[in-house]
């Protein structure tokens, strides 16, 4: 099975940057769809970005042009580079894997999840 461990969260000022990491293990061969989601208390988990098995990345409108999702295949690690952070980006961030080459926005499509890493942006 797929195992995911995400890290890299922290506290930054508005306008700052963070890079989140997600170390994947437990499978070989096909590279699955992987994505980043975020959640705040009292609200549902929402998709931030994903990258499919063909290398195509897609972003939510709220983070487009500020965030970048990418992989280092040699390290089996997924990243989310977050620039120009805003207070509204404050959330618990989770990496996830869907057992398919293609991606979806729906949270229920993702089978495996990291434990979450907190991002706090202050002004």
Question: What distance separates the N and C termini?
Answer: 41 Å
Q: Which range does the strand content fall in?
A: over 45%
Approximately how much helix is present in the residues?
A: under 10%
Mean pLDDT: 94
**Main sheet: strands, sense, barrel:** 7 strands, mixed
How would you classify the helix and strand content by structural class?
mainly beta
**Treating each run of at least 4 consecutive H or I residues as one helix, how many helices?**
0
Number of strands: 11
Order of helices and strands: EEEEEEEEEEE
Q: Concise description?
A:
It contains no helices and eleven strands. The chain is an all-beta fold.
Present the secondary structure layout.
Elements: E1 3-7, E2 10-13, E3 18-25, E4 33-39, E5 46-51, E6 57-59, E7 67-72, E8 77-82, E9 91-98, E10 112-113, E11 117-122
Parallel strand pairs: 2-11
Antiparallel strand pairs: 1-3, 3-8, 4-5, 4-9, 5-6, 7-8, 9-10, 9-11
């Amino acid at each position: 099975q797929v195992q995911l461990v995400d890290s890299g969260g922290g506290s930054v000022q508005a306008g700052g940057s963070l890079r989140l990491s997600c170390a994947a293990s437990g499978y070989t061969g096909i590279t699955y769809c992987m994505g980043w989601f975020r959640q705040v208390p009292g609200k549902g988990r929402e998709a931030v970005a994903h990258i499919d098995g063909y290398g195509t990345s897609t972003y939510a409108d709220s983070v487009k042009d500020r965030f970048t999702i990418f992989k280092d295949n040699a390290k089996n690690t997924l990243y989310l580079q977050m620039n120009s952070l805003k207070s509204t980006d404050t959330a618990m961030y989770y990496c996830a894997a869907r057992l398919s080459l293609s991606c979806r926005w729906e949270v229920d499509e993702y089978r495996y999840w990291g434990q979450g890493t907190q991002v706090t942006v202050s002004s």
